Amino acid sequence: MLSLTHYPFLIMDQQLPSGTLLSLESGIFWRAARTNEDTDRVGVSEQSPEDSHRELLHSLKSILPTMAAGKKELLMLENFIGGKFLPCSSYIDSYDPSTGEVYCKVPNSGKEEIEAAVEAAREAFPAWSSRSPQERSMVLNRLADLVEQSLEELAQAESKDQGKTLTLARTMDIPRAAQNFRFFASSILHHTTECTQMDHLSCMHYTVRTPVGIAGLISPWNLPLYLLTWKIAPAIAAGNTVIAKPSELTSVTAWMLCKLLDKAGVPPGVINIVFGTGPRVGEALVSHPEVPVISFTGSQPTAERITQLSAPHCKKLSLELGGKNPAIIFEDANLEECIPATVRSSFANQGEICLCTSRIFVQRNIYSEFLKKFVEATRKWKVGMPSDPSASMGALISKAHLEKVRSYVMKARAEGAQILCGEGVDQLSLPLRNQAGYFMLPTVITDVKDESCCMKEEIFGPVTCVVPFDSEEEVIKRANSVKYGLAATVWSSNVSLTHRVAKKLQAGLVWTNCWLIRELNLPFGGMKSSGIGREGAKDSYDFFTEIKTITVKH
Ligand SMILES: NC(=O)C1=CN([C@@H]2O[C@H](COP(=O)(O)OP(=O)(O)OC[C@H]3O[C@@H](n4cnc5c(N)ncnc54)[C@H](O)[C@@H]3O)[C@@H](O)[C@H]2O)C=CC1
Ligand SMILES: N/C(=C\C=C\C(=O)O)C(=O)O
């Protein structure tokens, strides 16, 4: 059976039921055909592109309505409100990043749909909030079970929708989505409140936490189901009802999740998912007077807009924004561990993770050695079709984003920086079908000044800068010299140094001699322009509840 890993990058032991579609890329569908019941090893057989495309649509059609568009059928998503799938009056094209083709239509919802969702969430709130934590925990555990059982279909859909490799979707995104439900199903059972005594006044005081009501959840396109469930799970565990708006660029797995809700016992109206653009439906959600909290993950400019719109209603905001994360590599670092980890922290998910490394500071006397080995390792970080099991990186999310990321490399070159590998240096070869996809090679920039936009601004793509430093004091000052303060990694075999440097870094998360080992119990989030608030067991619970102090005179 599926064994969920705690650490996203470990490959899981998993059974793939016979007949599971293993790949939907390049028109080749690899069908899992069990070769040996005992070992659960699966062989694959190859189908023709036409047959496999038909098979994919058939397998998804059972859960997604489709619409014929010329020769090709498109997936038609629908809003999920009050436990029902509802069509919309207009739609947005959604692209397969690995081919640049439209393959899905996303509802272009607006105020009307938000109003309907608020009504459904309002009606569901009394009953859901009255359920015990134990009862809500059981529903979340069933959701986790269903996500795990649907892992392959969800991973296939996530990879096709976001452009990430199927391997990453299978080993990180979807397992973490299940883990989010499982984690908050447990943590909701263990929160405590406070009590004090004033015997001299014959009084006692105690605190209680109650759900806030309807929670507005807005999630980004880089880790679609992973981050959507990271918000949904704690919100409903605490007894709230939710209206979620995923990114219009990656809406499919959110829609597929809706298919599982009834089976998990989620009552109608508890989870409502409304699709569409930020300015249209996102702002309708943020502005609605009956939605007292907004949990948002995305860009800083959007966070500013959300803050403006919510201010008149004095809403509670959780803003998880971007980063310009440094890796600081001291001369006594173990390069055999540091280099592969820093390649991964720079380029995982096409560099489209807010925690990715985009500035690498290397102590001068190992700078040349590091640079040589790092570039060698980067060139082995293979860009390929998302379904290619040997690919480390897939396609970026959109043509616009690809051009934005490329423009940073061009600016660096224009400023006299050196591009050691990747964009404009190495040759990217892709199958014909993928040549209109949004692919880019992992790119390493050196000889770049701290004042350069590549060293100051969030690029959010497979681009990282490597610069030398001399002293501990100098590198801390330089690492802290950007407006962001989200994450950092520190590499040294000197434990007291790593503790000392970690404490001085302006970052909400510091990994020493590792990256992205996540402890969901502890606060997650950044400082400065990386956001407001934290997420985690207690932090999310506190955010999605209101606290009250009650005094009893006896
Ligand atoms: N987790 C992170 O730190 C992320 C950072 N980014 C950064 O943001 C840049 C732009 O990416 P986008 O996807 O456009 O991020 P975005 O912040 O515009 O979108 C994130 C979510 O916010 C929604 N949204 C957008 N405008 C809104 C508005 N006015 N009101 C309410 N909701 C709104 C979007 O529909 C999406 O669901 C990226 O290039 C990257 O630099 C993007 C995604 C994730
Ligand atoms: N918020 C993001 C990542 C969160 C990771 C985690 O909670 O483990 C992001 O990439 O935007």
UniProtKB/TrEMBL annotation:
Residues 90-550 form the Aldehyde dehydrogenase domain. GO terms for cellular component: cytoplasm. It comes from the Eukaryota. It comes from Cricetulus griseus. Its EC number is 1.2.1.32. The active site is at 320. Keywords: Cytoplasm, NAD, Oxidoreductase. It is found in: Cytoplasm. It catalyses: 2-aminomuconate 6-semialdehyde + NAD(+) + H2O = (2Z,4E)-2-aminomuconate + NADH + 2 H(+). Its main location: cytoplasm. One of its GO terms (biological process) is retinoic acid metabolic process. Pathway: Amino-acid degradation; L-kynurenine degradation. One of its GO terms (molecular function) is retinal dehydrogenase (NAD+) activity. It is an enzyme of class 1 (oxidoreductase). This is 2-aminomuconic semialdehyde dehydrogenase.
